Amino acid sequence: MNYGFISLFIPVIVIVLAVFTKRIISSLIIGILAGGIMLAGGNIINGIILATEHLVKAIATEESVYIILFLFVFGAFGEIMKVSGGIKGFTEITKKFVKTERGALGAVWVVSSVTFIDCCFHAIASGTIGKALIEKTKGNKRRFAFVLNVTSCLLIVLIPFGTTYVGYIVGVIASSLSKAGIHKSAYELFIKSIPYNFYAITMLLISIVVIIFNFGFKKEIKPNTKGEEVGLSGHSNNEAQEQCEFEEKVSPRPFNLILPLTLLIVTTFFFFWFTGKGKGIGFTGAIMNADFEKSIFMSALVTLVITSVFYVIQKIPMSEIESHFLSGGNEMMPPIIVLTLSWALSSLVQDLGFTKFVTSAMGNGVPHFLIPASIFLLGCVISYFMGSSWGTWALIMPIAIPIAVATNINLALIIGSVLAGGSLGDNASPLGETAILSSTISEVPLMEHIKSELPYCLVGVGISAILFILVAIVG
Predict the structure, then answer these.
(1) In the chain, which end has fewer C-beta atoms inside a 10 angstrom radius, N or C?
(2) Which residue in 424, 415, 434, 412 sits closest to 463, CA to CA?
């Protein structure tokens, strides 16, 4: 039996549950069970079995395993670098050259070139350096929090290699393409979608204007409420405190940050070329035809091993490296679980006839030039109330790609609209991880930070929506 129309309600229910409960994992599990029971014709036992089978099949592919391993290893890699003294070394170097607030904020951008691997790592590393410089120059902490926030999530989502975002985004896109019956490179589409992430690009340009012209943001702030952000960010356990104590004792060694990241970039492109050679013309052709999932995992693994050996030679205790390895990998478990559950949900919904229903229903039902903007604004709403860009992408991408196919809209444009809408959550939501980290590090109360940046975020949303409409009309 074809449940095409009814299948539409499963992702809708999951989205509604996620928005109101703020529990993306629980909402996805409910959606998977509902889809399995529906696919089994209402039989609960068989439905649970079918739901489990779809979950196992979603995980038990070579591409899925590589992505899961990459996310875990990459999380561990980012955490290990904190113990090296590299961040402290960069702080001491930049202090010698920065004399003004503009220079302090510009330094956050400069340091991004070596802290781009993950939004949280960037917030902590660049935030530590930027905070010291802002205090030295007696700069505006609200403005600093805004710049740190924007570069922590909206810059990193535009970088097509060497970040935790890349593996996750490509995994979501690949699954959605597969279920929609589209045989295209997920990584190539991600690269093509980057110019269409209008929200991220707009907000980055706004942050540059803010830095150059010292624009906006009142300097006076209320005293920070002790524990407000700490409680939200969840970094108050004993293990984290012990790690911070060790990190504070490490000697400043900027090379310990530069070398691993340089190695990561080099090995990434090497494995792109190695796995893609012979499949395309020249170096660019090889990269576009690379075995993406295997390449990013191998580059992360090789970099992690060499970096660990390099640190051990410097007499950094292996026990500290192992501790940071485990804590960093464990921090990636929530997004790994969200990704695998979204794969299973997408598979179930497609088996219920979702793609066929959308293809027939969307053909002439909605003005095509409004679809990218509508998907973007839907993503903005969901991500704001959830506070999660990754969760939003997992929910909307499997819906958006079949709609793009049904309406013959540029796939890269639709993917860009999904990524842009989801990006708002981390950036502007009081529940967003980078918003919480940015306010904590800058010592600006969370709601003060959200309130001060919200007008700029709304301008970014408005400009982006207009651009999506214009590009859809022209395209």
Answers:
(1) N
(2) 424
pLDDT tens-digit map of 149-193: 999 889 989 998 878 788 889 889 988 898 778 888 888 899 999
CA angle 190, 150, 267 (to 5 degrees): 45
- Of the candidates 468, 472, 475, the residue with the CA atom closest to the CA atom of residue 368: 472
- Over residues 105-132, the pLDDT tens digits come to 998 898 888 788 778 778 877 887 888 8
Helix, strand, coil tally for the chain in percent (to 5): 80, 0, 20
Alpha-carbon span 437 to 160, nearest angstrom: 23
Place of tokens 């070394």: 89
Domain boundaries defined on the chain: 4-474
Quote the CA–CA distance of 466 and 472 in Å, as a whole number.
10
- pLDDT surpasses 50 at 234: no
Which residue is associated with the tokens 């399995």? 36
| Separate counts of helices (H) and strands (E) for the chain | 25, 0
pLDDT of 439 strictly over 60: yes
Please give the structure tokens belonging to residue 111.
């340091």
Measured at the CA of 21, the angle between CA 20 and CA 26, to 5 degrees, comes to 130
